Amino acid sequence: MANKTVVVQDGKLVGIAGTVDGQVLTWDATTSSASFETATSGGTVTQVSTGTGLTGGPITTTGTISLAEVSPSPAGSFTNANVTVDAYGRVTAAANGTDGTVTSVTAGTGLSGGTITTSGTISMPNVGTAATYGSASQVPVLTTDTQGRVSGVTNTSIAIAGSAITSGQVSLARGGTGTDLSGIAAGQAIIGQSPGGAVSAVTISGDATLAASGAVTVTGLRSRVVADSTPVDKQVLSWSASANAWVPVANAGGSGGGGVLWYLNEGTAAASPTTNIPSSTNPSTVPGGTTTVKQLGVTADASLFTLESGVLSQVSYDIVAGFVTDTGVPGLTSIPAGLWEFNVWAAASGNISNQTRFRIGVYKYDGTNAPTLIANSDDVYVYDPSTPAQYIASVVIPAGTTLSSSDRIYIQLDGRATTNNRTITFYFGDAKPTHVHTTIQVPVNLATDVTGTLPVGNGGTGVTTLTGYVKGNGSSAMSASATIPASDVTSIAYDLPAEIAGTPPISTKVVNFKAVRAFTLAASGHQGGAITYPTGSNVVCTVAKNGSSVGTITFTTGGSFTSSITQTSFAAGDVLSVQMPSAVNGIVTPYFTLAMTLG
């Protein structure tokens, strides 16, 4: 810039000599010098106006725009300020405020993070277990606390009560019957008609009947009647042509008289009492008879004895002789049905054209009253009058013949003529031992009648001596040992009972049983209950072996006890435990018994 004269007045720059109006100080980069040059125009702004909150406009050349003052002025410093701001963000009013009243914040039920006196965070703690619940066959059961939060979730099987099914029928494939059985009558049975088809209610017919109680009564076999009589020990069903029915009979002695053998001993007196037994001394019955009742025994008389009757009646049978068993014999309450075969030695007066005949009667005798007839043989004709001969007679003992345990058997020989002046002679003992083969089972004296060893298959042991603990070995001979081997102690009940008085503790092992010997926890047979059953949800307890679950026992809201346990073997030292769940749902004093066996 060329030298210029500067004018200063009162210490202030007021002008520069040589300049003219409108010049401005301009820098020239080319010459690196400054000079006063006349300003040139070229801007496009012709006027600036001021809007709301501003002052100083309008400006057409130069000027200053400022914020307008607000009234009253909010200028100052304020404590706990209460501030008013207008639409343009300006503070239009301000005043001192007061301090806050909150001094601390405490976390209430269901919250955590308190108490806070300065700063901090209050939050809801985690509850329950994060998981996915429910399936095609189960629905979730929610447990909420008093703050409405879900505190627990379990699964329960979907169950539909029968009362909820009000229309239609459940098919067989879904465990139903496929039909409406509301009209079923008492005593009818439900019978399937075809594979997969509906069932129907029918009345049992044929050889059996069905009562409303469910009792089945068999009335026949293959359309043949079964007699309505009470069997006794060891009897079997046998067909009776005379009764046209199946009847209970003893399975002993065979039907051909192969049982007890009794001899008619004319040489041995009968044991007392013989009250009211007919005697051959009665001349109106046996004319000329002189003998009394004799013994029916198991051993024959060694000597020969004969008995000739008086003159026999042609009109009716006369009593010739009678024989009764010893007191207390046979000691039975029934006689097996079948044939009693008699071998009788006899002869008669007369000739072959007019044969004398005899018959045999079998009676039961109670020692007081006259004998009661059981059965008679058919007539037996003495075909060779002059020579003693052996004659065969059979008496059919009917099914269902009963005795009192003190009853005795009485045998009576009767004779009858076909013409005048006929007699009959019977022979007993020695070489002519008149006797009878009965259907009564032959008693066996194990001390004297059995030799050798009786095999296991025949009810024996198969050995001659046994000392100590006796062990069966299937069809082989039994064995014995001084002590019972541990390996043989199996299937012996070893049940474990437990009761938890009052309200059981949650998530706690209420049974902790350490085995002192090997045992097996059964899959079924467990029992249990509770003084008060749970409400809302079942209580499911975990059964474990050494901490690993082997099943559950459940106390239901319906008032029942169920179990689902896998059969598990425990060795000595293993621990069987039962643990309560995390919620007991109001159950009081649950109790149970776990079914176990040794070994």
Features of the shown structure:
599 residues, mainly beta, Jelly Rolls, 12-stranded mixed sheet, 38% strand, rod-shaped
Task: Please describe the biggest sheet, giving its number of strands, its sense, and whether it closes into a barrel.
Answer: 12 strands, mixed
Helical stretch count?
0
Shape type: rod-shaped
CATH architecture of the domain at 261-437: Sandwich
Structural class: mainly beta
Portion of residues in helices? under 10%
The CATH topology assignment of the domain at 261-437 is: Jelly Rolls
Kindly provide the name of the CATH class of the domain at 261-437: Mainly Beta
Low-confidence segments: 252-256, 281-289
| Backbone CA Rg | 61 Å
Distance between the termini: 125 Å
Number of separate strands: 45
Q: What number is the mean pLDDT?
A: 81
Strand residue content: 35-45%
How would you portray this structure in words?
- With 599 residues, the protein is mostly beta strands.
- Among the domains are: 6-38, no CATH class; 261-437, Jelly Rolls (Sandwich), CATH 2.60.120.260; 496-598, Jelly Rolls (Sandwich), CATH 2.60.120.
- A hairpin with a 4-residue loop joins strand 3 (23-28) and strand 4.
- It is rod-shaped.
Summed up:
The chain has no helices and 45 strands. By secondary structure, the chain is mainly beta.
SSE topology:
Layout (H helix, E strand, L loop, with lengths): L5 E4 L2 E5 L6 E6 L4 E6 L15 E2 L10 E2 L14 E4 L5 E5 L42 E7 L5 E8 L30 E5 L6 E5 L4 E3 L5 E3 L1 E2 L2 E2 L9 E6 L4 E6 L10 E9 L24 E4 L7 E4 L9 E7 L9 E2 L2 E11 L8 E9 L6 E5 L3 E2 L7 E9 L3 E2 L5 E9 L7 E5 L6 E3 L31 E5 L2 E6 L14 E4 L9 E6 L4 E3 L5 E6 L6 E7 L2 E8 L5 E5 L2 E3 L4 E5 L8 E7 L1 E3 L1
Parallel strand pairs: 20-22
Antiparallel strand pairs: 1-2, 3-4, 5-6, 7-8, 9-10, 11-12, 13-14, 15-16, 17-18, 19-20, 19-32, 21-31, 22-30, 23-29, 24-28, 24-31, 24-32, 25-26, 25-27, 25-30, 33-34, 35-44, 36-43, 37-42, 37-45, 38-44, 39-40, 39-43, 40-41
